[in-house]
Design goal:
This protein has one domain. Strands 1-2-3-4-6-5 form a six-stranded antiparallel sheet. The C terminus is likely disordered. It is built from four helices and six strands. 25% of the residues lie in helices and 37% in strands. The chain is elongated. By secondary structure, it is α+β, with helices and mostly antiparallel strands.
Amino acid sequence: MKPNFEQLVAPILALKPRGEILLEIVPAPQKLAPHALALTADVLEDAATGRLVLLHDPDGQEGWSGQWRFVTFTRAAIDLEMASDPLLPEIGWAWLMESLKKYGCDFIAASGTVTRVASASFGDLEDKDEDSEIEIRASWTPTNESQLINNVNAWLELLGMTAGLEPIPEGVASISRKI
């Protein structure tokens, strides 16, 4: 018998991210698919934040090219020098692709945007420092439903990369917070 949605997302609900990341289950959008799961994650010190939604339609949806779809929004503060790098959008997209590859995710129909935002303040806010951010909005269709947890781990990796977290060396465990 084929596993149902709840059985397939159970490993995601039990996931323990690295200690610097607070992961929470939040209400999922109700009208995009018959089944959905939504997560938010914040890297400590407000270094980065993100949202990941997993959508499932057993009948499939043409725009997804399958029955499943991950949709993410990831945002992180970056320094002004990095924001001015003309290759930043390509770098942000490469971070996502590298994360999916690292976790062995099989997927199709990836799409998205990478935006850099630089802000300067004026008037009563002129004492505020200039700031900049990178935003990665992306979606992709996993082709192996038994790998859904891998896709979530890849997203958490992307969040860590955008926040500038040092990679955890292979074989070293991270102390994590409870979801």
